[in-house]
Here is the input.
Amino acid sequence: MWKHLGEQTIRLESPPTILAASSTVGPKEGQGPLASYFDVILEDVLWGEDTWEKAETKILKETIQRVITKADLTTDQIQYIFAGDLLNQIVATSFAMREFKVPFFGLYGACSTMGESMALASIMIDGGYADYVVAATSSHFCSAEKQFRSPLQLGVQRSLTATWTVTGSGAVVLSKEGLGPYVTHITPGKVIDLGVKDSMNLGATMAPAAADTIINHLLDTNREPDYYDLIITGDLGVIGKQLVLEMAQEYHYDLSKNYTDCGVEIFDPTTQDTHAGGSGCACAAVTLTGYILKEMEKGTFEKVLFIPTGALLSPLSTQQGESVPGVAHAVAIETNLE
Amino acid sequence: MEKIQDKKQQYQQRVEEISPKVNLLASSAKAFFVGGLICTFGQIITNVIKNMGYSSDEAAMITSITLVFIGALLTGVDIYDNIGKYAGAGSLIPITGFANSIVSSAMEFKKEGYIFGLGAKIFTIAGPVLVYGLLASMVVGLYHYLIY
Here is the structure.
Protein backbone atom coordinates (compact mmCIF):
# COMPACT_ATOMS: atom_id res chain seq x y z
CA MET A 1 0.00 0.00 0.00
CA TRP A 2 1.07 3.55 -0.72
CA LYS A 3 2.04 5.78 2.15
CA HIS A 4 0.61 8.79 0.35
CA LEU A 5 -3.15 8.90 0.12
CA GLY A 6 -5.15 11.10 -2.22
CA GLU A 7 -4.27 14.75 -2.40
CA GLN A 8 -2.37 15.42 0.81
CA THR A 9 -2.61 12.66 3.40
CA ILE A 10 0.13 10.44 4.78
CA ARG A 11 -0.68 6.96 6.03
CA LEU A 12 1.90 5.83 8.56
CA GLU A 13 2.81 2.26 7.75
CA SER A 14 4.20 1.53 11.20
CA PRO A 15 2.20 3.97 13.29
CA PRO A 16 4.18 5.46 16.17
CA THR A 17 2.81 5.20 19.69
CA ILE A 18 2.26 8.22 21.88
CA LEU A 19 4.28 6.81 24.76
CA ALA A 20 3.72 9.66 27.18
CA ALA A 21 2.19 13.12 27.28
CA SER A 22 2.52 16.01 29.68
CA SER A 23 0.99 19.42 30.16
CA THR A 24 1.73 22.57 32.15
CA VAL A 25 -0.72 25.46 32.32
CA GLY A 26 -0.98 28.91 33.86
CA PRO A 27 -3.32 29.95 36.67
CA LYS A 28 -6.19 31.06 34.41
CA GLU A 29 -6.28 27.73 32.55
CA GLY A 30 -6.11 26.09 35.99
CA GLN A 31 -9.47 27.67 36.78
CA GLY A 32 -11.04 26.50 33.54
CA PRO A 33 -13.27 23.50 32.82
CA LEU A 34 -10.31 21.21 31.95
CA ALA A 35 -8.28 22.00 35.10
CA SER A 36 -8.41 18.46 36.50
CA TYR A 37 -6.64 17.06 33.40
CA PHE A 38 -3.41 19.07 33.60
CA ASP A 39 -0.19 17.74 35.16
CA VAL A 40 1.01 21.04 36.59
CA ILE A 41 -0.91 24.27 37.19
CA LEU A 42 1.25 27.31 37.88
CA GLU A 43 0.35 29.74 40.65
CA ASP A 44 1.69 32.76 38.82
CA VAL A 45 2.60 33.52 35.23
CA LEU A 46 6.26 34.30 35.95
CA TRP A 47 7.07 31.01 37.75
CA GLY A 48 9.99 32.59 39.61
CA GLU A 49 11.55 34.13 36.49
CA ASP A 50 11.97 37.84 35.90
CA THR A 51 10.48 38.01 32.39
CA TRP A 52 7.51 36.35 30.71
CA GLU A 53 9.76 35.07 27.95
CA LYS A 54 12.02 33.31 30.45
CA ALA A 55 8.95 31.89 32.15
CA GLU A 56 7.76 30.48 28.83
CA THR A 57 11.15 28.87 28.26
CA LYS A 58 10.99 27.32 31.71
CA ILE A 59 7.44 26.05 31.13
CA LEU A 60 8.50 24.32 27.90
CA LYS A 61 11.71 22.93 29.39
CA GLU A 62 10.00 21.50 32.46
CA THR A 63 7.20 20.00 30.39
CA ILE A 64 9.64 18.22 28.08
CA GLN A 65 11.68 16.96 31.02
CA ARG A 66 8.51 15.69 32.69
CA VAL A 67 7.25 13.91 29.59
CA ILE A 68 10.57 12.10 29.18
CA THR A 69 10.40 10.96 32.80
CA LYS A 70 6.78 9.88 32.36
CA ALA A 71 7.83 7.75 29.39
CA ASP A 72 10.39 5.99 31.64
CA LEU A 73 13.19 7.27 29.46
CA THR A 74 16.25 9.42 29.94
CA THR A 75 17.15 12.43 27.80
CA ASP A 76 19.97 10.42 26.15
CA GLN A 77 17.39 8.08 24.66
CA ILE A 78 15.51 10.89 22.93
CA GLN A 79 16.93 11.18 19.42
CA TYR A 80 15.21 14.30 18.13
CA ILE A 81 13.03 17.12 19.37
CA PHE A 82 10.54 18.96 17.16
CA ALA A 83 9.22 22.11 18.80
CA GLY A 84 8.31 25.75 18.35
CA ASP A 85 6.46 28.69 19.87
CA LEU A 86 5.03 32.12 19.00
CA LEU A 87 7.86 34.45 19.91
CA ASN A 88 10.08 36.09 17.31
CA GLN A 89 12.74 33.62 16.11
CA ILE A 90 11.05 31.02 18.37
CA VAL A 91 13.36 31.98 21.22
CA ALA A 92 11.28 30.41 23.98
CA THR A 93 11.91 27.03 22.38
CA SER A 94 15.50 27.56 21.25
CA PHE A 95 16.49 28.74 24.71
CA ALA A 96 14.81 25.76 26.34
CA MET A 97 16.75 23.50 23.96
CA ARG A 98 20.05 24.68 25.48
CA GLU A 99 19.26 22.39 28.38
CA PHE A 100 18.86 19.29 26.23
CA LYS A 101 21.70 17.66 24.40
CA VAL A 102 19.35 16.41 21.72
CA PRO A 103 19.26 17.30 18.00
CA PHE A 104 16.52 19.86 17.48
CA PHE A 105 14.25 20.98 14.69
CA GLY A 106 12.71 24.41 15.36
CA LEU A 107 9.26 24.92 13.86
CA TYR A 108 7.02 27.87 13.26
CA GLY A 109 3.44 27.00 12.44
CA ALA A 110 1.97 29.61 14.77
CA CYS A 111 -0.67 27.87 16.88
CA SER A 112 -0.65 24.82 14.61
CA THR A 113 2.81 23.87 15.89
CA MET A 114 1.63 20.87 17.92
CA GLY A 115 0.19 19.33 14.76
CA GLU A 116 3.28 20.15 12.73
CA SER A 117 5.70 18.80 15.34
CA MET A 118 3.73 15.59 15.86
CA ALA A 119 3.41 15.08 12.10
CA LEU A 120 7.14 15.43 11.45
CA ALA A 121 8.11 13.37 14.51
CA SER A 122 5.76 10.59 13.39
CA ILE A 123 7.17 10.58 9.86
CA MET A 124 10.68 10.36 11.28
CA ILE A 125 9.75 7.31 13.35
CA ASP A 126 7.76 5.67 10.59
CA GLY A 127 10.69 6.21 8.26
CA GLY A 128 12.90 4.27 10.63
CA TYR A 129 15.16 7.18 11.48
CA ALA A 130 14.44 7.24 15.19
CA ASP A 131 12.99 5.24 18.06
CA TYR A 132 12.02 8.06 20.40
CA VAL A 133 11.16 11.61 19.37
CA VAL A 134 9.68 14.46 21.38
CA ALA A 135 7.11 16.86 19.89
CA ALA A 136 6.29 19.95 21.92
CA THR A 137 5.14 23.54 21.90
CA SER A 138 4.40 26.43 24.24
CA SER A 139 2.70 29.81 24.43
CA HIS A 140 2.35 32.46 27.10
CA PHE A 141 -0.45 35.01 27.36
CA CYS A 142 1.77 37.88 28.47
CA SER A 143 4.64 37.32 26.02
CA ALA A 144 2.16 36.89 23.16
CA GLU A 145 0.28 40.08 24.08
CA LYS A 146 3.57 41.94 24.28
CA GLN A 147 4.65 40.78 20.86
CA PHE A 148 1.39 40.83 18.93
CA ARG A 149 -0.88 43.32 20.70
CA SER A 150 -0.56 46.05 23.33
CA PRO A 151 0.94 46.47 26.80
CA LEU A 152 -0.97 44.51 29.45
CA GLN A 153 -1.74 47.57 31.57
CA LEU A 154 -3.13 49.59 28.65
CA GLY A 155 -6.77 50.42 29.35
CA VAL A 156 -8.36 49.24 26.12
CA GLN A 157 -11.31 46.98 25.39
CA ARG A 158 -10.68 43.57 23.81
CA SER A 159 -12.74 42.83 20.74
CA LEU A 160 -15.68 40.47 21.25
CA THR A 161 -14.22 38.22 18.56
CA ALA A 162 -10.77 38.07 20.20
CA THR A 163 -9.43 34.91 21.80
CA TRP A 164 -7.28 34.52 24.91
CA THR A 165 -3.76 33.08 24.47
CA VAL A 166 -3.29 30.02 26.65
CA THR A 167 -0.29 30.05 28.97
CA GLY A 168 1.28 26.63 29.05
CA SER A 169 3.02 23.87 27.21
CA GLY A 170 2.23 20.39 25.97
CA ALA A 171 4.71 17.69 24.99
CA VAL A 172 4.52 14.09 23.81
CA VAL A 173 7.07 11.33 23.39
CA LEU A 174 6.49 9.34 20.21
CA SER A 175 7.91 5.87 20.09
CA LYS A 176 8.49 3.23 17.44
CA GLU A 177 7.32 0.47 19.78
CA GLY A 178 4.28 0.66 21.99
CA LEU A 179 0.71 -0.27 22.58
CA GLY A 180 -0.88 2.95 21.42
CA PRO A 181 -2.54 5.31 21.14
CA TYR A 182 -1.14 5.41 17.63
CA VAL A 183 -0.66 8.24 15.18
CA THR A 184 -2.12 6.59 12.09
CA HIS A 185 -2.58 9.36 9.53
CA ILE A 186 -1.38 12.89 8.98
CA THR A 187 -2.92 15.49 6.71
CA PRO A 188 -0.59 18.48 6.49
CA GLY A 189 -2.55 21.59 5.61
CA LYS A 190 -2.28 24.19 2.90
CA VAL A 191 -1.99 27.88 3.65
CA ILE A 192 -5.39 29.37 2.96
CA ASP A 193 -6.33 33.03 3.03
CA LEU A 194 -9.87 34.14 2.32
CA GLY A 195 -9.00 37.78 2.83
CA VAL A 196 -10.09 38.32 6.42
CA LYS A 197 -7.99 41.19 7.74
CA ASP A 198 -9.20 41.42 11.32
CA SER A 199 -6.31 40.27 13.52
CA MET A 200 -8.75 40.37 16.45
CA ASN A 201 -10.87 37.67 14.82
CA LEU A 202 -8.30 34.95 14.33
CA GLY A 203 -10.88 32.16 14.53
CA ALA A 204 -12.40 33.45 11.32
CA THR A 205 -9.01 33.72 9.62
CA MET A 206 -8.11 30.10 10.39
CA ALA A 207 -11.47 28.39 9.91
CA PRO A 208 -11.13 27.95 6.11
CA ALA A 209 -7.76 26.22 6.54
CA ALA A 210 -9.21 23.94 9.21
CA ALA A 211 -12.25 23.08 7.09
CA ASP A 212 -10.07 22.43 4.04
CA THR A 213 -7.76 20.10 5.96
CA ILE A 214 -10.66 18.19 7.54
CA ILE A 215 -12.47 17.80 4.21
CA ASN A 216 -9.33 16.68 2.40
CA HIS A 217 -8.47 14.26 5.19
CA LEU A 218 -11.89 12.66 4.93
CA LEU A 219 -11.70 12.52 1.13
CA ASP A 220 -8.16 11.13 1.08
CA THR A 221 -8.82 8.44 3.68
CA ASN A 222 -12.28 7.71 2.33
CA ARG A 223 -13.74 8.16 5.79
CA GLU A 224 -16.93 9.78 6.99
CA PRO A 225 -16.93 12.22 9.94
CA ASP A 226 -18.62 9.62 12.16
CA TYR A 227 -15.58 7.35 11.78
CA TYR A 228 -14.09 9.52 14.52
CA ASP A 229 -15.34 9.76 18.09
CA LEU A 230 -13.96 13.27 18.23
CA ILE A 231 -12.88 15.81 15.63
CA ILE A 232 -11.20 18.71 17.39
CA THR A 233 -9.56 21.83 15.97
CA GLY A 234 -6.86 23.79 17.78
CA ASP A 235 -7.90 27.31 18.67
CA LEU A 236 -10.72 28.62 16.52
CA GLY A 237 -13.01 29.64 19.38
CA VAL A 238 -16.78 29.86 19.05
CA ILE A 239 -16.87 31.91 15.83
CA GLY A 240 -14.33 29.78 13.99
CA LYS A 241 -16.01 26.60 15.17
CA GLN A 242 -19.34 27.72 13.76
CA LEU A 243 -17.68 28.67 10.44
CA VAL A 244 -16.02 25.24 10.15
CA LEU A 245 -19.35 23.51 10.75
CA GLU A 246 -20.97 25.60 8.02
CA MET A 247 -18.16 25.14 5.50
CA ALA A 248 -18.05 21.38 6.02
CA GLN A 249 -21.80 21.30 5.54
CA GLU A 250 -21.39 22.92 2.14
CA TYR A 251 -19.34 19.88 1.15
CA HIS A 252 -21.98 17.59 2.61
CA TYR A 253 -20.01 16.63 5.69
CA ASP A 254 -22.06 16.84 8.86
CA LEU A 255 -19.68 17.53 11.74
CA SER A 256 -22.37 18.62 14.19
CA LYS A 257 -22.31 15.42 16.26
CA ASN A 258 -18.63 14.97 17.10
CA TYR A 259 -16.83 18.21 16.32
CA THR A 260 -15.52 20.77 18.77
CA ASP A 261 -12.57 23.09 19.26
CA CYS A 262 -9.89 23.15 21.98
CA GLY A 263 -10.36 26.92 22.32
CA VAL A 264 -14.03 26.40 23.09
CA GLU A 265 -13.34 23.69 25.68
CA ILE A 266 -10.44 25.19 27.64
CA PHE A 267 -12.15 28.28 29.09
CA ASP A 268 -15.57 29.03 30.46
CA PRO A 269 -16.64 32.18 28.59
CA THR A 270 -19.31 33.09 31.13
CA THR A 271 -16.98 33.28 34.13
CA GLN A 272 -13.52 33.72 32.59
CA ASP A 273 -14.14 36.70 30.29
CA THR A 274 -12.20 35.18 27.41
CA HIS A 275 -14.62 36.38 24.69
CA ALA A 276 -14.41 33.97 21.71
CA GLY A 277 -12.32 31.31 23.51
CA GLY A 278 -8.74 30.16 23.96
CA SER A 279 -5.87 30.35 21.47
CA GLY A 280 -2.11 30.00 21.23
CA CYS A 281 0.14 27.02 20.55
CA ALA A 282 -0.52 25.70 24.03
CA CYS A 283 -4.29 25.74 23.56
CA ALA A 284 -4.27 22.70 21.29
CA ALA A 285 -1.19 21.19 22.96
CA VAL A 286 -2.49 21.12 26.54
CA THR A 287 -5.98 20.07 25.47
CA LEU A 288 -4.42 17.11 23.64
CA THR A 289 -1.92 16.14 26.31
CA GLY A 290 -4.37 16.81 29.13
CA TYR A 291 -7.95 16.18 28.15
CA ILE A 292 -7.92 14.17 24.88
CA LEU A 293 -5.19 11.62 25.61
CA LYS A 294 -6.40 11.05 29.17
CA GLU A 295 -9.92 10.44 27.91
CA MET A 296 -8.53 8.07 25.27
CA GLU A 297 -6.78 6.18 28.02
CA LYS A 298 -10.11 5.84 29.84
CA GLY A 299 -11.74 4.66 26.63
CA THR A 300 -14.09 7.62 26.14
CA PHE A 301 -12.58 8.20 22.68
CA GLU A 302 -10.94 5.58 20.47
CA LYS A 303 -10.51 7.55 17.27
CA VAL A 304 -9.65 11.23 17.35
CA LEU A 305 -8.85 13.65 14.58
CA PHE A 306 -6.76 16.45 16.07
CA ILE A 307 -6.32 19.56 13.91
CA PRO A 308 -4.21 22.38 15.43
CA THR A 309 -4.75 25.64 13.58
CA GLY A 310 -2.37 28.55 13.04
CA ALA A 311 -2.86 32.17 12.02
CA LEU A 312 0.23 33.20 10.07
CA LEU A 313 0.39 36.89 10.84
CA SER A 314 2.91 39.28 12.32
CA PRO A 315 2.27 42.72 13.82
CA LEU A 316 4.09 44.13 10.79
CA SER A 317 1.92 42.36 8.22
CA THR A 318 -1.23 43.58 9.98
CA GLN A 319 0.02 47.17 10.02
CA GLN A 320 0.83 46.93 6.34
CA GLY A 321 -2.78 46.00 5.68
CA GLU A 322 -2.26 42.34 4.80
CA SER A 323 -4.98 39.77 5.40
CA VAL A 324 -4.29 36.82 7.70
CA PRO A 325 -3.49 33.43 6.14
CA GLY A 326 -4.32 30.30 8.12
CA VAL A 327 -2.95 26.78 8.21
CA ALA A 328 -4.14 23.57 9.87
CA HIS A 329 -2.50 20.17 10.21
CA ALA A 330 -4.58 17.09 10.97
CA VAL A 331 -3.24 14.21 13.05
CA ALA A 332 -5.35 11.05 13.38
CA ILE A 333 -4.88 9.30 16.71
CA GLU A 334 -6.38 5.87 17.26
CA THR A 335 -6.34 3.49 20.23
CA ASN A 336 -6.38 0.36 18.10
CA LEU A 337 -4.90 -0.48 14.73
CA GLU A 338 -7.16 -1.87 12.02
CA MET B 1 -16.15 20.89 -6.85
CA GLU B 2 -15.60 24.52 -5.91
CA LYS B 3 -12.53 24.94 -3.74
CA ILE B 4 -12.66 26.70 -0.38
CA GLN B 5 -10.09 29.14 -1.76
CA ASP B 6 -12.63 30.41 -4.30
CA LYS B 7 -15.23 31.47 -1.76
CA LYS B 8 -13.63 34.71 -0.61
CA GLN B 9 -16.51 37.09 -0.98
CA GLN B 10 -19.15 34.74 0.34
CA TYR B 11 -16.95 33.88 3.30
CA GLN B 12 -16.10 37.44 4.28
CA GLN B 13 -19.78 38.28 4.23
CA ARG B 14 -20.57 35.32 6.48
CA VAL B 15 -17.78 36.27 8.94
CA GLU B 16 -19.28 39.74 9.12
CA GLU B 17 -22.73 38.31 9.88
CA ILE B 18 -21.60 35.80 12.47
CA SER B 19 -19.16 37.95 14.46
CA PRO B 20 -20.73 39.45 17.59
CA LYS B 21 -21.11 43.21 17.50
CA VAL B 22 -20.47 45.68 20.28
CA ASN B 23 -23.64 47.26 21.63
CA LEU B 24 -22.87 50.80 20.53
CA LEU B 25 -25.51 52.46 22.68
CA ALA B 26 -24.51 50.70 25.93
CA SER B 27 -20.80 51.23 25.24
CA SER B 28 -21.30 54.89 24.44
CA ALA B 29 -23.33 55.35 27.62
CA LYS B 30 -20.56 53.80 29.73
CA ALA B 31 -17.88 55.86 27.96
CA PHE B 32 -19.94 59.03 28.40
CA PHE B 33 -20.52 58.32 32.09
CA VAL B 34 -16.91 57.53 33.01
CA GLY B 35 -15.43 60.16 30.70
CA GLY B 36 -17.82 62.70 32.20
CA LEU B 37 -16.87 61.63 35.70
CA ILE B 38 -13.17 62.15 34.98
CA CYS B 39 -13.86 65.59 33.47
CA THR B 40 -16.08 66.59 36.39
CA PHE B 41 -13.31 65.57 38.74
CA GLY B 42 -10.90 67.71 36.71
CA GLN B 43 -13.28 70.66 36.93
CA ILE B 44 -13.49 70.29 40.70
CA ILE B 45 -9.70 70.39 40.94
CA THR B 46 -9.60 73.50 38.72
CA ASN B 47 -12.21 75.28 40.82
CA VAL B 48 -10.49 74.44 44.09
CA ILE B 49 -7.12 75.61 42.75
CA LYS B 50 -8.67 78.84 41.44
CA ASN B 51 -10.24 79.47 44.84
CA MET B 52 -6.76 79.22 46.28
CA GLY B 53 -5.89 82.32 44.30
CA TYR B 54 -4.23 80.89 41.18
CA SER B 55 -5.00 82.20 37.70
CA SER B 56 -7.05 80.18 35.19
CA ASP B 57 -3.95 79.18 33.23
CA GLU B 58 -2.14 78.04 36.35
CA ALA B 59 -5.19 76.14 37.56
CA ALA B 60 -5.51 74.35 34.20
CA MET B 61 -1.86 73.33 34.33
CA ILE B 62 -2.06 72.07 37.90
CA THR B 63 -5.22 70.12 37.01
CA SER B 64 -3.47 68.42 34.08
CA ILE B 65 -0.50 67.51 36.25
CA THR B 66 -2.77 66.09 38.94
CA LEU B 67 -4.84 64.02 36.50
CA VAL B 68 -1.74 62.66 34.75
CA PHE B 69 -0.35 61.68 38.14
CA ILE B 70 -3.56 59.88 39.11
CA GLY B 71 -3.74 58.09 35.73
CA ALA B 72 -0.14 56.96 36.06
CA LEU B 73 -0.63 55.81 39.64
CA LEU B 74 -3.76 53.80 38.82
CA THR B 75 -1.90 52.17 35.92
CA GLY B 76 0.98 51.21 38.18
CA VAL B 77 -1.28 49.56 40.72
CA ASP B 78 -3.15 47.55 38.07
CA ILE B 79 -6.47 49.42 38.22
CA TYR B 80 -6.59 51.64 35.13
CA ASP B 81 -6.77 48.73 32.66
CA ASN B 82 -9.92 47.55 34.42
CA ILE B 83 -11.47 51.01 34.21
CA GLY B 84 -10.56 50.99 30.51
CA LYS B 85 -12.16 47.60 30.02
CA TYR B 86 -15.43 49.02 31.33
CA ALA B 87 -15.33 52.54 29.92
CA GLY B 88 -13.47 52.17 26.62
CA ALA B 89 -12.97 55.59 25.05
CA GLY B 90 -14.39 57.16 28.21
CA SER B 91 -11.10 56.58 30.00
CA LEU B 92 -8.90 56.50 26.89
CA ILE B 93 -9.57 60.03 25.63
CA PRO B 94 -9.09 62.13 28.82
CA ILE B 95 -5.54 63.01 29.82
CA THR B 96 -5.56 60.13 32.33
CA GLY B 97 -5.69 57.77 29.32
CA PHE B 98 -2.64 59.50 27.88
CA ALA B 99 -0.82 58.84 31.15
CA ASN B 100 -1.99 55.21 31.07
CA SER B 101 -0.64 54.70 27.56
CA ILE B 102 2.80 56.00 28.55
CA VAL B 103 3.10 54.23 31.90
CA SER B 104 1.79 50.90 30.58
CA SER B 105 4.40 50.98 27.79
CA ALA B 106 7.11 51.89 30.29
CA MET B 107 6.13 48.97 32.54
CA GLU B 108 5.94 46.56 29.62
CA PHE B 109 9.31 47.39 28.07
CA LYS B 110 11.38 48.01 31.22
CA LYS B 111 12.74 44.47 30.92
CA GLU B 112 14.58 45.41 27.75
CA GLY B 113 16.58 48.04 29.63
CA TYR B 114 16.14 51.72 30.47
CA ILE B 115 17.55 53.01 27.17
CA PHE B 116 16.42 50.75 24.33
CA GLY B 117 13.49 49.31 26.22
CA LEU B 118 11.71 51.84 28.36
CA GLY B 119 13.32 54.90 26.78
CA ALA B 120 12.74 53.90 23.18
CA LYS B 121 9.30 52.39 23.56
CA ILE B 122 7.63 54.56 26.18
CA PHE B 123 5.77 56.50 23.46
CA THR B 124 4.79 53.44 21.40
CA ILE B 125 1.11 54.14 22.02
CA ALA B 126 1.22 57.85 22.85
CA GLY B 127 3.64 58.72 20.03
CA PRO B 128 0.99 59.39 17.38
CA VAL B 129 -0.87 61.69 19.78
CA LEU B 130 2.28 63.75 20.26
CA VAL B 131 3.22 63.81 16.58
CA TYR B 132 -0.18 64.90 15.31
CA GLY B 133 -0.82 67.09 18.34
CA LEU B 134 2.35 69.02 17.58
CA LEU B 135 1.52 69.12 13.88
CA ALA B 136 -1.94 70.50 14.62
CA SER B 137 -0.52 73.17 16.93
CA MET B 138 1.96 74.17 14.22
CA VAL B 139 -0.87 74.63 11.76
CA VAL B 140 -2.84 76.67 14.26
CA GLY B 141 0.30 78.67 15.12
CA LEU B 142 0.94 79.50 11.46
CA TYR B 143 -2.69 80.52 11.00
CA HIS B 144 -2.42 82.74 14.04
CA TYR B 145 0.85 84.29 12.84
CA LEU B 146 -0.09 84.87 9.20
CA ILE B 147 -3.81 85.55 9.13
CA TYR B 148 -5.41 86.27 12.45
User: Anything to note?
Assistant: Chain A has a mean pLDDT of 97. The longest helix of chain A spans residues 202-221. The longest strand of chain A covers residues 17-25. The domain at 182-334 of chain A is CATH 3.40.47.40 (Peroxisomal Thiolase; Chain A, domain 1).
